[in-house]
Specification:
alpha/beta; Rossmann fold; 8-stranded mixed β-sheet; 8 strands; 24% strand
């Protein structure tokens, strides 16, 4: 699979320049998927699960990959969460405009999933659009060995707003197993809009990438 049309552009934010790749399908558009990367990995590279999400272009989805300003600037360490949210809030409305349609699905891998969750309800004044769904690839529930530092409240944000959320989690993820994720989120809020799928592996992209791809595509098909 290769996207039919790809446009790479820059978006100025208060945190610096972000880089955005808009991958368009051939034919009619069914929806828009905007994804962010994690806090690690080689600069300029995209993990296999984010790359496989581009398969959605074969199903009519526009897929937008967002590179945060800290990576564009060549830094090796991510900036603080509030700065990531600020940049994301600038990028999403800049790219989500005609002809990109709803449903609008936001998400990402690890730290990128956290950003998408925190900002998913949008802004009351409408400057940041509300997401129709959230996709979390390897949600980092807590630092390894530190379950006391839970981030369940972040994952609970879209759920509390009634936004459908898919979490694809490795069975042996040291940042939180699928069972840990479900238990922690259920304690925070009504998790009726949560769909959690366990895949083989840890916090790295699953060794069963075909399963991840099928899971994401089936979920997207149910959305729009």
């Amino acid at each position: 699979m290769s996207p039919r049309e790809v446009t790479w552009t820059s978006v100025d934010t208060s945190e610096g320049e972000a880089r955005v790749g808009v991958h368009l399908p051939e034919g009619a558009l069914r929806g828009t998927l905007i994804l962010g990367h994690g806090a690690g990995g080689p600069l300029g590279s995209w993990p296999r699960d984010l790359q496989s999400a581009l398969t959605a272009t074969d199903h009519g989805w526009a897929v937008v990959l967002v590179e945060q300003p800290w990576r564009v600037a060549g830094r090796k360490v991510a900036t603080r969460p509030p700065t990531l949210d600020t940049a994301w809030r600038a990028v999403v409305p800049a790219v989500f405009r005609d002809p990109l349609p709803r449903p609008l699905v936001v998400g990402g891998r690890s730290a990128g999933a956290r950003v998408a969750c925190r900002t998913s309800p949008g802004d009351p004044e409408g400057s940041m659009p509300r997401a129709d769904a959230v996709l979390c690839l390897a949600f980092p529930l807590h630092p390894p060995g530190r379950p006391d530092r839970s981030r369940a409240a972040e994952l609970a944000v879209p759920l509390a707003a009634g936004i459908p959320t898919l979490v694809v989690q490795g069975s042996a993820d040291p940042f939180g197993s699928p069972a840990e994720v479900r238990e922690a989120v259920t304690a925070e809020t009504d998790a009726s809009t949560l769909e959690l799928v366990e895949v083989p592996g840890n916090h790295s992209p699953s060794r069963d990438q075909a399963l991840v791809t099928r899971t994401v595509l089936a979920w997207l098909d149910r959305l729009g």
